[in-house]
């Protein structure tokens, strides 16, 4: 029944490691997003894909690489993790890239030690 | 660039009372969307209410309503008959009306405490 799901919900890892977060939506939406919520709870867009095509790419270190194998999935791979990458990462989806409401996943809390 | 400001980092309300959370935004666009999202301790981001800028009528969803003042660029959320389950961080968000690349710009959030 879950509309937007993310795995894992918690991720604890060492500096320098590479990790991935997966996102899936079963809403039939065309557009998916990654947002980052920092320690002060501030949320900011990182990436967006529409029908597997990258349409938003904010100023994010190139250690972060999104991948969309199909329009129901948007994964986030992070290379060479740094302490500052510790945050909650939210996946979201919307019916289209334009005016539709975005629905969020449960978030993945990433802790880099 | 659009910005969203929530000037109240924390608010509290007594159960069954009414509380209003403030939000202002800055944009040069005439058409856009505004949202309030709720984030309880579970961390899930939950849509509370949505307002289209071209609509003069204020949006309402049960106990939640907004006061949308387009000229003043103000979008406050009123919660009536507050319940313990309303305790959460509330985020105001703005989105441009565009056909592609439509991102949400969030405010800093207001932490709402509901006292029994």
Describe this structure in words.
The complex is a heterodimer of chains A (113) and B (116). Chain A has 113 residues and is an all-beta fold. Helices cover 0% and strands 56% of the residues of chain A. Chain A has strands at 4-7, 10-13, 19-25, 31-37, 43-50, 53-57, 64-70, 73-78, 87-94, 103-104, 108-112. The relative contact order of chain A is 0.34. Chain B has strands at 3-5, 10-14, 19-21, 24-26, 32-39, 46-52, 60-61, 64-69, 74-79, 88-96, 105-106, 110-115. In chain B, strands 2, 5, 6, 10, 11 and 12 form a 6-stranded mixed β-sheet that branches. In chain B, a hairpin with a 4-residue loop joins strand 8 (64-69) and strand 9 (74-79). At the A-B interface, strand 5, strand 9 and strand 10 of A face strand 5, strand 6, strand 10 and strand 11 of B.
In short:
With 113 residues, chain A is an all-beta fold. Chain A has strands spanning 4-7, 10-13, 19-25, 31-37, 43-50, 53-57, 64-70, 73-78, 87-94, 103-104, 108-112.
How would the blueprint of this fold be written?
The complex is a heterodimer of chains A (113) and B (116).
Chain A: E1 4-7, E2 10-13, E3 19-25, E4 31-37, E5 43-50, E6 53-57, E7 64-70, E8 73-78, E9 87-94, E10 103-104, E11 108-112
Parallel strand pairs in A: 2-11
Antiparallel strand pairs in A: 1-3, 3-8, 4-5, 4-9, 5-6, 7-8, 9-10, 9-11
Chain B: E1 3-5, E2 10-14, E3 19-21, E4 24-26, E5 32-39, E6 46-52, E7 60-61, E8 64-69, E9 74-79, E10 88-96, E11 105-106, E12 110-115
Parallel strand pairs in B: 2-12
Antiparallel strand pairs in B: 1-4, 3-9, 5-6, 5-10, 7-8, 8-9, 10-11, 10-12
């Amino acid at each position: 029944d879950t509309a937007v799901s993310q795995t894992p919900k918690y991720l604890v890892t060492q500096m320098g490691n590479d990790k991935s977060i997966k996102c899936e939506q079963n809403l039939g939406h065309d557009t998916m997003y990654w947002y980052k919520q920092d320690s002060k709870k501030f949320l900011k867009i990182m990436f967006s894909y529409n029908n597997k095509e990258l349409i938003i790419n904010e100023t994010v270190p190139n250690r972060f690489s999104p991948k969309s194998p199909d329009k129901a999935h948007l994964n986030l791979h992070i290379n060479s993790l740094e302490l500052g990458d510790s945050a909650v990462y939210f996946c979201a989806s919307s019916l289209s890239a334009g005016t539709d409401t975005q629905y969020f996943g449960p978030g993945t809390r990433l802790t880099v030690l | 660039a659009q910005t969203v400001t929530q000037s109240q980092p924390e608010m509290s309300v007594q159960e069954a009372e009414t509380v209003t959370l403030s939000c202002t935004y800055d944009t040069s666009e005439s058409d856009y969307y505004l949202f309030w999202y709720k984030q309880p301790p579970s961390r899930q981001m939950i849509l509370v209410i949505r307002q289209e800028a071209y609509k003069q009528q204020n949006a309402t969803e049960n106990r939640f309503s907004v006061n949308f003042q387009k000229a003043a660029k103000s979008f406050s959320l009123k919660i009536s008959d507050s319940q313990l389950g309303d305790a959460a961080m509330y985020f105001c968000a703005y989105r441009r009306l565009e056909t592609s690349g439509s991102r949400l710009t969030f405010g800093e959030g207001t932490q709402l405490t509901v006292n029994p």
